[in-house]
Amino acid sequence: xxxxxxxxxxxxxxxxxxxxxxxxxxxxxxxxxxxxxxxxxxxxxxxxxxxxxxxxxxxxxxxxxxxxxxxxxxxxxxxxxxxxxxxxxxxxxxxxxxxxxxxxxxxxxxxxxx
Amino acid sequence: xxxxxxxxxxxxxxxxxxxxxxxxxxxxxxxxxxxxxxxxxxxxxxxxxxxxxxxxxxxxxxxxxxxxxxxxxxxxxxxxxxxxxxxxxxxxxxxxxxxxxxxxxxxxxxxxxxxxx
Lengths: 114, 117
Prior knowledge:
The complex is a heterodimer of chains A (114) and B (117).
Chain A: E1 3-5, E2 10-14, E3 19-21, E4 24-26, E5 31-38, E6 44-50, E7 56-58, E8 64-68, E9 73-78, E10 87-95, E11 103-104, E12 108-113
Parallel strand pairs in A: 2-12
Antiparallel strand pairs in A: 1-4, 3-9, 5-6, 5-10, 7-8, 8-9, 10-11, 10-12
Chain B: E1 4-7, E2 10-13, E3 19-25, E4 32-38, E5 44-51, E6 57-58, E7 67-73, E8 76-81, E9 90-96, E10 107-108, E11 112-116
Parallel strand pairs in B: 2-11
Antiparallel strand pairs in B: 1-3, 3-8, 4-5, 4-9, 5-6, 7-8, 9-10, 9-11
């Protein structure tokens, strides 16, 4: 069975500071890992993904994430936070085999304070 | 990127009525679409997998007679909430995966907020 844990319900960061949103996962085979962002009353927007290759992946809006197989983690990072980054962030995983749906974490609300 | 359109964005209905939500893939064909439900301040719960030309696959605990899913074409899936009650009020989101994306990221519609009075 697949699962995702986002241990923080809320992350508060000052504008201009680096941010990290944590994610750990569990999957039986090789993982495909994703980060999505959701603004109020909107659907989810794809940020980035890890499939294979370099452990550090870069995505939209200056976000990046690092895949760590030994720690089964895929933390989302950004060197310098913007107020407009404030939103709900979801980590998701699926097994690399088959046309399986994504399993989402419970989400982390990021607040960037000016 | 791939575009998924969902309609309506907002709907208010009376208890006992049925509501249909449409999910369209605008620039790709989707043999499979996924329907999620999101409660306030909570994560997305997968309700069902919609398969073109065949019956949907429902997750455990989701009433298939309550949430009717039809995937009549390669670009359209519909979710009908039958005999809606206030507890069905929620944010419903559909998603689809373009066939050329082997890595499998999903693209999401904008969501439909249902309020049952």
